[in-house]
């Protein structure tokens, strides 16, 4: 009887420690930031709000299409991570690319860009007021550098992916240092938890 | 028997001499591996990546890049600050590669920023980019880059 009790205690302790450090590769932002809310222009040209995601979990990245290096690298990693998820979970997650460069990123430009990564990625942008409202909400910034002689300019932006649950509650910040496997593990954990909650309800 | 050993000796000497010459003078003073352009749709700039090794015994500096396939090419580095914000830093002084050293142009680091493709590019296509160096003779090298999908690293 005694070894069994010991084993049970050990299991309980293991379970407790697993709960204590939540086991994310990314940074948990649960309860630290307000729920998803925005008014932006979609790649279709329509004005949309957070309801465009129809109650699905969302992975959102702030960037711009004239960003040849880190934006495609991060979006490609995200898409590769999603492809590693079990099929039903892949369908559930909505991907969103918010351009903070509305001057160059019109709807058609956004549609071409996001389609190159995934058909489940929605391109969004807005006025400076709309974009500032959204980025401030998630304590991130963006800015423009001086124009060069040829009229091109550089944009600074957040390097993290923000993940929201189906209710629009912020859950995770996936930092740019994470690899495909780490992102996939976090997404699977988040989406599986959601499936479990739905089963219990 | 004597003739045979003489022939063997001559072959061995020749091989040795060839090896020595090859060792003295590397075939190429600089080596560029895995040159690739990551295709981005919609007319947005693309990134060029490669590995650059300097086989000479003095430093060389990559100072320029140009291509007929693009309006303008710049040498950039992506910098992510402590607060997680990302920006691109123009490499005004080019990129120094010390004697015998290797510098990698790779995602989220050094890259060529290829502005305004002059024609529609396709995955698998070859694109010539002329790299200009200081400390190298001749100063310009034409490198054939392969166009790879945007989802590749």
Round the Cα radius of gyration of chain B to an integer and report it: 21 Å
Count the beta strands of chain A: 10
Radius of gyration of CA atoms of chain A, rounded to a whole number: 19 Å
- The class by helix and strand makeup of chain B works out as alpha+beta
Largest sheet of chain B: 10 strands, mixed
Structural class label of chain A = alpha+beta
Which CATH-level-2 architecture of chain A?
Answer: 3-Layer(aba) Sandwich
User: How confident is the prediction overall: mean pLDDT of chain B?
Assistant: 90
Helical percentage of chain B: 10-25%
Q: How many discrete structural domains of chain A?
A: 1
Protein chains sharing the most extensive interface: A-B, 32 and 30 residues
Could you name the CATH topology of chain B? Immunoglobulin-like
Named CATH architecture of chain B: Sandwich
Beta-strand share of residues of chain B: over 45%
Number of domains of chain B: 1
Termini of chain A, distance in Å? 37 Å
Share in helix of chain A = 25-40%
Number of helices of chain A: 6
Q: Which series of helices and strands of chain B comes N to C?
A: HEEEEEEEEEE
Mean pLDDT of chain A: 89
By CATH, the superfamily of chain A comes out as Glutaredoxin
């Amino acid at each position: 009887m005694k070894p069994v009790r010991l084993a049970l205690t050990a299991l309980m302790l293991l379970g407790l420690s697993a709960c204590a450090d939540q086991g994310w590769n990314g940074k948990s932002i649960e309860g630290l930031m307000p729920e998803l809310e925005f008014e932006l222009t979609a790649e279709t040209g329509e004005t949309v709000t957070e309801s465009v995601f129809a109650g699905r979990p969302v992975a959102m990245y702030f960037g711009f299409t004239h960003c040849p290096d880190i934006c495609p690298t991060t979006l490609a990693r995200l898409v590769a991570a999603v492809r590693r998820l079990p099929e039903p979970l892949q369908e559930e997650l909505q991907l969103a690319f918010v351009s903070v460069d509305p001057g160059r990123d019109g709807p058609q430009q956004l549609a071409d860009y996001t389609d190159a990564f995934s058909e489940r990625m929605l391109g969004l942008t807005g006025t400076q007021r709309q974009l500032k409202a959204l980025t401030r909400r998630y304590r991130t910034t963006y800015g423009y550098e001086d124009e060069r002689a040829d009229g091109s300019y550089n944009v600074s932006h957040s390097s993290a992916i923000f993940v929201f649950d189906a209710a629009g509650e912020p859950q995770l910040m996936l930092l740019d240092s994470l690899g495909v496997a780490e992102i996939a593990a976090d997404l699977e954990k988040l989406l599986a938890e959601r499936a479990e909650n739905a089963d219990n309800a | 028997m004597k003739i045979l050993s003489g022939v063997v000796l001559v072959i061995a000497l020749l091989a040795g001499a060839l090896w020595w010459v090859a060792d003295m003078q590397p075939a190429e003073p600089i080596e560029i591996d895995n040159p690739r352009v990551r295709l981005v749709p919609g007319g947005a700039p693309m990134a060029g990546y490669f590995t650059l090794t300097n086989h000479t015994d003095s430093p060389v500096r990559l100072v320029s890049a140009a291509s007929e396939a693009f309006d303008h090419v710049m040498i950039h580095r992506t910098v992510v600050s402590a607060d997680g914000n990302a920006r691109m830093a123009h490499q005004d002084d080019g990129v120094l590669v010390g004697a015998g050293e290797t510098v990698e142009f790779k995602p989220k680091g050094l890259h060529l920023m290829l502005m305004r493709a002059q024609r529609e590019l396709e995955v698998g296509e070859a694109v010539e980019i002329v790299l200009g160096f200081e400390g190298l003779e001749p100063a310009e090298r034409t490198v054939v880059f392969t166009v790879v999908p945007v989802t590749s690293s």
